[in-house]
UniProtKB/TrEMBL annotation:
Residues 726-796 form the Fibronectin type III-like domain. Residues 1-20 form the signal peptide. The lineage of its organism: Eukaryota, Viridiplantae, Streptophyta, Embryophyta, Tracheophyta. The keyword Signal applies. This is Beta-xylosidase/alpha-L-arabinofuranosidase 1-like. The gene is LOC105175723. It comes from the Eukaryota. Keywords: Glycosidase, Hydrolase, Signal. Pfam families: Fn3-like (PF14310), Glyco_hydro_3 (PF00933), Glyco_hydro_3_C (PF01915). One of its GO terms (molecular function) is xylan 1,4-beta-xylosidase activity. GO terms for biological process: arabinan catabolic process; xylan catabolic process.
Length: 810
């Protein structure tokens, strides 16, 4: 989503820029069925008979309000009543409504990335805070919640957020459609929006998407409705930004002009996979296309990406929306095809874009039809996709199940505790020499709390935040355990002044323990702001080293950041005993961090990103989209799947206050797949000197995947003295020698709680097609024969795998 297009100099002169969105009064733009058309009466839904009679209409004449009819029939009736101009006025984020037939306005744009947000409030977004709803629970940023590697938590947070969203809708303070989550893969460690995302692994990103979307959308008990186009919804979610979007503004290359050059292989394997999972497994109601071009074509005008893939192949039950003002970007930023507005609108409609966040559709779709550039039927189709979602949300008929949600359901104690719990589960312990942590509150009476984030508040909620219920800063959290001596040490995150270091050293030399809060914030990594290096800004490193040198007690460094930071100096400094990564931990961040530091919670989070050494950024430009190394240009690979060099901390890294060991219980490690006469062997390129089987691979689409399941049963033992949670990470590496194959890839993970001295049995479901596939250079998904090996943890347990293809009887 764009803050707005003011950055786009070329757009500044436009006569038809965002008029409607600069409207000063936000509440008039907020449209739910309550306040529409009659300020003195509240309605809970559009098809309230008294609402129609107040409008002087007889509801019986409007079949779209007849709940005995199917959504299909009702939506068609609604659309068929509209004139062309009325139709085109409904396909922008602000759908203007048609008073003549009792159809109210609706604002499609709300955000709920990690709590209900008011982002875009100066534009036309539907969610806002005031005296009636002063705040909503601000959960940790997604990158930290992801670090829990706990699917149940991801879904539970989604459920809490949608409860607050529904409550706010009932109070006229939010819409029903939320353009969250952001599921772009963090391909490059410099990307400014890493905080919004679930990290660098496409499978983890997809799993996060599925669970968060189901948490937001699903109405308990109706998940398996036969006709998914009538499945009830709690709120509507949206997976964005589709696709291959992850350059914001790097050394002058911005997202509005960036043309991502992407191979089919990377597209299938990395960039599309989370979106495919979001649609097919999450049954999301919306996909948002991105600003950038992919191989020369703006994503919002690409019928192959939208109509063929999202709607066709993946069978979206919902609508496709543009990022805000994408059509304007296409027209005036990218000057794509030297279009007139009507051409751009026609191209986007034909490509399958249903809703324009902006006002190009609402201003020009009608004339585009009149000029013969696009069929009216394309608009009808978009309207059908849109209004079907609103019917499923109860916009027309009400949602009795949610109508009693109100103020007490926003910022409830239960939700604030869940925000704390999400932070605890995500926090990653990176270093803990000599079991320095947890600190004992018996022994530690005074604590030096130092650094630019020591008193963090808004920095903890990152971007796409709302107004939190309250904050528990690190100082607040630690004050529960001892007497805090606070020193900033720096004049801010950018830390351009070293004069505050000395007072910090003095404090540390006199207290029983030293905790340094350092890292980044939105002035370093943000939307429209990529990083240029991976270092701590300014004098922060110096602050840490100098304070550590003179500290009387143990030294703990807490890093708040989304992207990885090259803290090799601290990792290697014996004066620094422990390091914790806390992401941007949400409104209760200080509470969760203190719980971890003083042992009320045993950390079990794992890094969802590789923490690269700073040199990495000088080896390749952000604009190179290849995941694999580009030997001819000397570019290394990207993400743990393709980067074989040294790192500060690898993907999946994280320590605990206890130790875990793994033991296989029973493992079926062979798949013998019988091929019928219609299943053919496919060639696969092997590197020189490696054995290539006679039937190297089979197309996954040709296989009967249901019959290729494999269950992995292992025992996780906690051999230490404290209860703790372990994340069991299962990687697969394919047969040796396959050209350009990933080094390894995560195929399953599960977080498990094990009591001290006990063990837990764990079953992990793997599937031949889903887990052991590779994508070849042409984008084909193949199951290679041979098998390779399964690795649990970082090589803690290795299980060889055997996959064979046979012809005829086994
Ligand atoms: C409409 O609902 C709002 C929010 O519940 C409430 O504050 C207001 O008093 C209601 N107005 C009327 C006329 O009932
Ligand atoms: C609004 O609703 C009230 C209560 O039903 C009714 O008396 C009034 O006439 C309505 N106002 C308008 C403008 O329709
Ligand atoms: C098309 O719709 C816009 C916005 O509602 C309106 O200003 C314009 O007059 C319409 N064009 C025609 C030809 O009716
Ligand atoms: C911490 O920040 C809060 C809010 O910005 C402020 O009110 C408070 O005084 C600060 N605490 C200290 C110890 O400076
Ligand atoms: C650093 O801070 C000190 C104390 O506030 C101030 O006197 C000095 O001018 C600052 N230096 C710079 C370079 O801003
Ligand atoms: C790591 O990858 C680079 C780039 O492809 C390659 O040149 C190098 O040989 C690899 N190193 C190892 C140890 O595999
Ligand atoms: C974990 O195991 C290592 C190696 O055996 C040992 O040094 C360490 O003390 C153990 N840690 C805990 C927390 O039990
Ligand atoms: C996963 O999250 C859920 C929801 O917060 C929690 O109940 C459960 O204990 C967590 N699992 C582990 C192993 O920490």
């Amino acid at each position: 989503m764009s803050a707005k297009l003011c950055f786009l100099v070329s757009l500044a002169l436009l006569f038809h820029s965002t008029i409607a969105r600069n409207s000063p009064s936000i509440s008039t733009n907020v449209v739910n069925a309550y306040s529409t058309f009659n300020a003195t009466r509240n309605y809970t839904h559009v098809c309230d008979p008294s609402r129609f009679s107040d409008l002087g209409l007889n509801i019986k004449h409007f079949a779209f309000c007849d709940s005995s009819l199917s959504y299909d029939v009702r939506v068609k009736d609604l659309i068929d009543r509209m004139t062309l101009n009325e139709k085109s006025a409904q396909i922008g984020d602000t759908a203007y409504g048609v008073p003549r037939i009792g159809l109210p306005k609706y604002e499609w744009w709300s955000e709920a990335l990690h709590g209900v947000s008011n982002v875009g409030q100066s534009g036309s977004v539907a969610s806002y805070f005031d005296d009636v709803v002063p705040g909503a629970t601000s959960f940790p940023t997604v990158i930290l919640t992801t670090a829990s590697f706990n699917q149940t938590l991801w879904k539970t947070v989604g459920q809490a957020v949608s409860t607050e969203a529904r409550a706010m809708y009932n109070l006229g303070h939010a819409g029903l459609t939320f353009w969250s989550p952001n599921i772009n893969v963090v391909r490059d460690p410099r990307w400014g929006r890493a905080q919004e995302t679930p990290g660098e692994d496409p499978f983890v990103v997809g799993e996060y998407a599925v669970n968060y979307v189901r948490g937001l959308q699903d109405v308990e008990g109706t998940e398996n409705t036969a006709d998914l186009n009538s499945r009830p919804l709690k709120v509507g979610a949206c997976c964005k930004h589709y696709a291959a979007y992850d350059v914001d503004n790097w050394l002058g290359v911005d997202r509005y002009h960036f043309d991502a050059r992407v191979t089919e292989q990377d597209m299938q394997e990395t960039f599309l996979r989370p979106f495919e999972m979001c649609v097919k497994e999450g049954d999301v109601t919306s996909i948002m296309c991105s600003y950038n071009k992919v191989n020369g074509i703006p994503t919002c005008a690409d019928p192959k990406l939208l109509k063929d893939t999202v709607r066709g192949e993946w069978n979206l039950h919902g609508y496709i929306v543009s990022d805000c003002d994408s059509i304007e970007v296409m027209l005036h930023g990218q000057k794509w095809l030297n279009d007139e507005p009507e051409d751009a609108v026609a191209q986007a409609l034909k490509a399958g874009l249903d809703l324009d966040c902006g006002n190009f559709y609402t201003n020009f779709a009608n004339s585009s039809v009149r000029m013969g550039k696009v069929k009216e039927a394309e608009i009808d189709n978009a309207l059908k996709n849109l209004y079907t979602v609103l019917m499923r949300l109860g916009f027309f008929d009400g949602s009795p199940k949610f109508e009693n949600l109100g103020k007490p359901d926003v910022c409830s104690n239960e939700h604030i505790e869940l925000a704390t719990e999400a932070a605890r589960q995500g926090i990653v312990l990176l270093k803990n020499d000599a079991e320095t942590l947890p600190l004992s509150s018996e022994k530690i009476k005074t604590i030096a709390v130092i650094g630019p984030h020591a008193n963090a508040t808004s920095a903890m909620i990152g971007n796409y935040a709302g107004v939190p219920c309250k904050y528990t800063s690190p100082i607040d959290g630690l004050s529960r355990f001892g007497e805090v001596k606070y020193e900033m040490g720096c004049d801010g995150v950018l830390c351009k002044n070293d004069t505050l270091i000395y007072p910090a050293m003095r404090a540390a030399s006199k207290t029983d323990a030293t905790i340094l809060f350092v890292g980044l914030d939105l002035s370093v990594e943000a939307e429209s702001l990529d990083r240029v290096d991976l270092l701590l800004p300014g004098y922060q490193s110096q602050l840490i080293s100098q304070v550590a040198q003179v500290s009387k007690g143990p030294v703990v460094v807490v890093v708040m950041s989304a992207g990885g930071v090259d803290i090799s100096f601290a990792k290697n400094d014996p004066n620094i005993h422990s390091i914790i990564w806390a992401g941007y931990p949400g409104e209760e961040g200080g509470h969760a961090i203190a719980d971890v530091v003083f042992g009320r919670y045993n950390p079990g989070g794992r890094l969802p990103l590789t923490w690269h050494e700073n040199d990495y950024v000088y080896m390749l430009p952000m604009t190179s989209m290849r995941l694999r190394p580009v030997d001819s240009l000397g570019y290394p690979g990207r993400t743990y799947k393709f980067f074989n060099g040294s790192t500060v901390y690898p993907f999946g890294y994280g320590l605990s206050y206890t130790n875990f060991t793994y033991k296989p219980v029973s493992t079926k490690n062979k798949l013998n797949i019988r091929l019928n006469q219609f299943q053919h062997c496919k060639d696969l390129e092997y590197r020189d000197g490696f054995y290539k089987p006679s039937c190297p691979a089979v197309l996954i689409d040709d296989l009967k995947c249901d019959s290729h399941n494999m269950e992995l049963a292992i025992e996780v033992a906690n051999t230490g003295k404290r209860d703790g949670s372990d994340v069991v990470m299962v990687y697969w590496s394919g047969p040796s020698g396959i050209a350009e194959a990933p080094i390894k890839q995560l195929v399953a993970f599960k977080r498990v709680l094990v009591k001290a001295g006990r063990s837990e049995k764990l079953k992990l479901e793997l599937n031949g097609c889903k887990s052991f596939g590779i994508v070849d250079y042409s984008g084909s998904k193949l199951l290679p024969s041979g098998g390779g090996k399964i690795e649990i943890g970082d090589g803690l347990l290795t299980i060889p795998l055997q996959i064979d293809f046979h012809r005829g009887a086994l």
